[in-house]
Amino acid sequence: MKKINSIRLAALSESDLAEFKHEMQKAFQYGYECEFGPCPGPVLPETDIDQTLAENGAVAYSAWVDNVMAGGAVVKIDPENQNNQLELFFIRTSFQGRGLGRAIWSEIEKLYPTTAIWETCTPYFEKRNLHFYINCLGFQIVEFFNPRHPFPEIYPEYHGGMSDEAGKYFFRFRKIMHPGNG
User: Fold this and answer.
1) What pTM did the predictor assign?
2) What is the pLDDT of residues 2-51, one digit of tens each?
3) Measured between alpha carbons, how far is 137 from 67 in angstroms, rounded to an integer?
């Protein structure tokens, strides 16, 4: 596949919201179904996306390659302590494996240079995500959620439409940007 050389990151516009949600749902569905086969419902329901977008501090970005929305992200920014969250991140399936995720994340980090810590979560079965966050972006696994150590109430439910088994196992990642801040 041809590597992507340039992207344009833009604040998500209302006119692009429907496509953003649709492509995000397709990307999440694809990751799940590659591992487990067909899912009876959406892995990432639209209501979960809407809830994330409505959170205090949430900012959404769409990523464009040659006038095509190729991916996007929702981050939650805490201006007081600068411990920020990557809430949702996707690459359109036809653009995966071409370096776009790293390019998008690099642009997001540039937008928030005072971030002390970034955190995110991903399901255990998303091997490509594990590789991406650890080997490409420099995150570290700091916690493993499972039936004996479930998500605390401060985290939203990440189960979506996944089977009970798949929806119970998640890794939490942290990337310390400025040592001494966490």
Assistant:
1) 0.88
2) 777 689 999 999 999 999 999 999 999 999 999 889 988 898 999 999 99
3) 26
